[in-house]
Amino acid sequence: MCQSGAAHVLGAYASAVSPKSTPPAPAAPSLTERRKAATQLEIARAAADLFTELGPDATTTEAIASRAGVGLRTFYRYFRNKQDAVGPLLSVGGEHWRARLAATAPGTPLPEALAGAIAESLAVPDEATAAGLRQARGLLRAAADDPALRAVWYQVNQESEDQVRSVLAQLGDRSGEGGGGADPLDVRLAAAASTAAIRIALETWAETDADVEGPGSPADLALRCLRRLLPE
């Protein structure tokens, strides 16, 4: 989601990653799991579209299920209520940037890795990506007037922060400096700061009419946030 150099709160982290200690890749999801995830994401997209078009109050679970092409029983199999339905969509960006962070090249200092992973995740290589960001903008605008939608957004960010802590701890454990890895406080601070940088950037961007690229874009704002939250 952002680009280029950030700050230094993690001096102990700025070390090489040992390739031979890289953990094995997780098992690929089964066909059933992939189908379940695809259905959840389809429902989430339908919910986001309707929240943007009609507003939270006028959007019903029945309308979401109909737009997604599923029955109400299927909807409630996956989600408790209409606001919960957007969770999978809001989680996608975080999944992408954590994957990029975990794939940090050996020898990359962590502050640079954080910024680079965010930059790549918020890059806009095609129109489909741009459309996804605009959909997120509409959803965040709808959430401004709906406490339940905001609660889902905050929950997604908290869960992402917890997972980022795990990724950063693994990077520290795989560093080539020896010793016990990075200070847990540094890990927690970096996870909180990088997650907050993305959240604040997207919320700020959603309040404007700035483009998906360039000045005032999510990537531009997230980098600026990261540099301020993790000062030199």
TrEMBL record:
Annotated InterPro entries: DNA-bd_HTH_TetR-type_CS (IPR023772), Homeodomain-like_sf (IPR009057), HTH-type_TetR-like_transc_reg (IPR050109), HTH_TetR (IPR001647)
DNA-binding region of this protein: 60-79
Keyword Transcription regulation: yes
Gene3D superfamilies: Tetracycline Repressor, domain 2
Listed Pfam families: TetR_N
Keywords assigned by UniProt, alphabetized: DNA-binding, Transcription, Transcription regulation
GO MF assignments: DNA-binding transcription factor activity; transcription cis-regulatory region binding
Protein name: TetR family transcriptional regulator
Domain HTH tetR-type residue range list: 37-97
